């Protein structure tokens, strides 16, 4: 990636790669990370921690965009090398169902300093970036949102959900499952090398999953807390399949003797098999002196409740949007997918940014998929590109979006046909926050 810069009104927008200590551009990259922390109300980080973050960004191959004021700031204000806005990108593979993966342009670390907000900086960054991503061959962009009201206008739609659960692991907790493998405690540091391998196994079978960025293995292994220190509270259990290979793990923390009921909080739970998932929960339910497990990243379609004698051991709350998708190239995105059934649909797609606008015919026939522009033909369904992102992984029902007045059905039954087509083989779930 070559560094670039352009002028936007009274600002200069610069794009550059992460840079380590001693590399050219290190000061610029360090100020960028400070600015992101400022935007998300983090405590000021030490230079040592910033350098660790930059090293992880290098491993992710991130592109950093900073927006800088051209005029000299007033006395005592932050120096002009400190960006007033940040925008980060990287690329990873998204599982789009039936074993298919789509290289996806991920957008992260979006901040605009309060004193420069609502002057169109985000709009300028986003529109330029999405067009460039399409130009580089990406059919899909993705993000996770701090607020649900920001990104629909740029064509992003909610494609997966998550929820928080509390699980009563006391006397009522009994999972109807005969263990096929085994669970053993390990030093959490083994996750530094094991976690990406095990995650890859889960990723391969989970629609909606995005390959994780470098920071994950450091955080979940306890090697590096958000403040850079070692997290000594983390524990780890590994799941071994019947052939002895590690195919799951749980990283967890005991919340202390002041937490009532006594609780272990799941930091990360990754299981590449159905039985491994239930056996890791059997393990969590067997921890002595603990009455409850909590997990903030639980799937909405969770087999746990169905495997329990008493499904009311699980209390779910805060169901929320997780992965937002933005289709950049309709024929490329639709033809990359495999569909739940054979069929033909003509979709009219509106896109205020013009990237995906058009009428498109998609046809799935015995596993072969064809997509073509159908200019001038009548659409069976018309929708905004954000709604196409929502239905793409089968987690949002087009019938529901039609009821909400978002999708218009021109052929009776077309939204139900779309639901059957877009269905995937397992409920979509994304365990990667970025
Ligand atoms: C992917 C991620 O990183 S998610 C994290 C997003 N970042 C944050 O939440 C950090 C705190 N907030 C901020 O830094 C800023 O307020 C941002 C990034 C949300 C917005 O930046 P701004 O430069 O002020 O946005 P900009 O002026 O370009 O506005 C773009 C559009 O979004 C709208 N908008 C901006 N922020 C919000 C919001 N919080 N809620 C609803 N609409 C919003 C504007 O009204 C505008 O609409 P329009 O262009 O259709 O008229």
Automatic annotation (TrEMBL):
<dbReference type="GO" id="GO:0030649">
    <property type="term" value="P:aminoglycoside antibiotic catabolic process"/>
</dbReference>
<dbReference type="InterPro" id="IPR025559">
    <property type="entry name" value="Eis_dom"/>
</dbReference>
<feature type="active site" description="Proton acceptor; via carboxylate">
    <location>
        <position position="434"/>
    </location>
</feature>
<comment type="similarity">
    <text>Belongs to the acetyltransferase Eis family.</text>
</comment>
<dbReference type="InterPro" id="IPR036527">
    <property type="entry name" value="SCP2_sterol-bd_dom_sf"/>
</dbReference>
<dbReference type="Pfam" id="PF17668">
    <property type="entry name" value="Acetyltransf_17"/>
</dbReference>
<comment type="subunit">
    <text>Homohexamer; trimer of dimers.</text>
</comment>
<feature type="active site" description="Proton donor">
    <location>
        <position position="151"/>
    </location>
</feature>
<keyword id="KW-0808">Transferase</keyword>
<dbReference type="InterPro" id="IPR016181">
    <property type="entry name" value="Acyl_CoA_acyltransferase"/>
</dbReference>
<dbReference type="InterPro" id="IPR022902">
    <property type="entry name" value="NAcTrfase_Eis"/>
</dbReference>
<protein>
    <submittedName>
        <fullName>GNAT family N-acetyltransferase</fullName>
    </submittedName>
</protein>
<feature type="binding site">
    <location>
        <begin position="118"/>
        <end position="123"/>
    </location>
    <ligand>
        <name>acetyl-CoA</name>
    </ligand>
</feature>
<feature type="binding site">
    <location>
        <begin position="146"/>
        <end position="147"/>
    </location>
    <ligand>
        <name>acetyl-CoA</name>
    </ligand>
</feature>
<dbReference type="InterPro" id="IPR041380">
    <property type="entry name" value="Acetyltransf_17"/>
</dbReference>
<dbReference type="InterPro" id="IPR000182">
    <property type="entry name" value="GNAT_dom"/>
</dbReference>
<feature type="domain" description="N-acetyltransferase">
    <location>
        <begin position="38"/>
        <end position="178"/>
    </location>
</feature>
<dbReference type="GO" id="GO:0034069">
    <property type="term" value="F:aminoglycoside N-acetyltransferase activity"/>
</dbReference>
<feature type="binding site">
    <location>
        <begin position="110"/>
        <end position="112"/>
    </location>
    <ligand>
        <name>acetyl-CoA</name>
    </ligand>
</feature>
<keyword id="KW-0012">Acyltransferase</keyword>
<dbReference type="Pfam" id="PF13527">
    <property type="entry name" value="Acetyltransf_9"/>
</dbReference>
<dbReference type="Pfam" id="PF13530">
    <property type="entry name" value="SCP2_2"/>
</dbReference>
<dbReference type="InterPro" id="IPR051554">
    <property type="entry name" value="Acetyltransferase_Eis"/>
</dbReference>
């Amino acid at each position: 990636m070559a560094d670039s810069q352009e002028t936007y009104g009274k600002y200069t927008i610069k794009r550059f790669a992460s840079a380590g200590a001693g590399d050219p551009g290190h000061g610029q990259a360090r100020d960028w990370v400070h600015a992101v922390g400022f935007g998300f109300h983090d405590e000021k980080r030490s230079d040592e921690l910033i350098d660790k973050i930059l090293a992880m960004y290098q491993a992710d191959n991130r592109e950093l965009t900073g927006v800088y004021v051209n005029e000299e700031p007033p006395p005592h204000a932050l120096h002009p090398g400190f960006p007033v806005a940040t925008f980060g990108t990287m690329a990873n593979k998204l599982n789009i169902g039936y074993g298919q993966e789509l290289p996806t342009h991920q957008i992260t670390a979006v901040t605009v300093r309060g004193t420069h907000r609502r002057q169109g900086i985000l709009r300028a960054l986003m529109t330029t970036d999405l067009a460039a991503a399409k130009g580089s061959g990406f059919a899909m962009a993705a993000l996770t949102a701090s607020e649900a009201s920001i990104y629909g206008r740029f064509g992003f739609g909610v494609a997966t959900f998550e929820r928080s659960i509390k699980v009563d692991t006391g006397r009522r907790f009994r999972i109807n499952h005969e263990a096929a493998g085994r669970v053993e405690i390990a030093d959490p540091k083994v996750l530094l090398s094991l976690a990406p391998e095990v995650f890859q196994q889960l990723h391969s079978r989970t629609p909606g999953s995005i390959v994780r960025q470098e920071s994950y293995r450091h955080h979940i292994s306890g090697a590096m807390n958000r403040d850079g220190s070692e997290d000594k509270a983390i524990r780890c259990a590994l799941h071994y399949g019947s052939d002895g290979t590690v195919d799951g793990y749980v990283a967890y923390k005991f919340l202390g003797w002041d937490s009532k009921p006594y609780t272990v909080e799941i930091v990360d739970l990754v299981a590449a098999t159905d039985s491994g998932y239930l056996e890791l929960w059997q393990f969590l339910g067997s921890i002595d002196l603990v009455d409850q497990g909590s997990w903030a990243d639980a799937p909405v379609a969770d087999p746990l409740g169905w495997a329990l004698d008493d499904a009311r051991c699980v209390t779910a709350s805060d169901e929320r949007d997780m992965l937002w998708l933005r289709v950049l190239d309709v024929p490329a995105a639709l033809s990359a997918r495999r569909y739940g059934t054979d069929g033909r649909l003509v979709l009219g797609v509106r896109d205020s940014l013009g990237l995906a606008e058009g009428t498109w015919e998609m046809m799935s026939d015995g596993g072969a998929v064809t997509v073509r522009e159908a200019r001038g033909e009548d659409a069976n369904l018309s929708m905004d590109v954000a709604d196409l992102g929502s239905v793409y992984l089968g987690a949002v029902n087009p019938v529901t979006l039609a009821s909400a007045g978002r999708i218009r059905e021109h052929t009776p039954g077309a939204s139900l046909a779309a639901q059957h087509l877009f269905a995937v083989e397992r409920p979509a779930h994304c365990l990667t926050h970025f």
